Amino acid sequence: MSEYDECTDALVDRTVLTGLQAELGGDHVIIATFVRNYVELLPWRVHRLHRALEKLDIEDAMDAVLSLKTSSHMVGAKCMNRLATELEISIRLLPNGDHLHELAAQVQEIDHFMSGTIQELETSVQ
């Protein structure tokens, strides 16, 4: 494991959502909807990474990992953000898409933390 995937503390930085809520005038409904959308799309985003690796599609893999990284950052899912950042770096270091299968363990690591991230986010907006 590297410095990017240390997911030993809380999986979600709740201060990110608190700050976003303050920026939006304190509207809890908007934040709850934002989190719900992230939670609903997270399994799809991870599945998209798996599919891109299976198809050896480096462009789709990059697009999928950037989507995961950006959305995770915005919602405060710090572990997902770290893991996506590490995966992005790994993709960029590959000579071509034929080597994407080498990154399967990193996507499995993302899988490993997905349920916990969803649980923490759902708890944070109740």
UniProtKB/TrEMBL annotation:
Q: What GO biological process terms does the UniProt entry carry, in alphabetical order?
A: phosphorelay signal transduction system
Q: Which residues form the HPt domain?
A: 27-126
Looking up SUPFAM superfamilies in the UniProt record yields:
Histidine-containing phosphotransfer domain, HPT domain (SSF47226)
| Matching InterPro entries | HPT_dom_sf, Sig_transdc_His_kin_Hpt_dom
What is the recorded name of this protein?
HPt domain-containing protein
Which species expresses this protein natively? Paenarthrobacter aurescens (Arthrobacter aurescens)
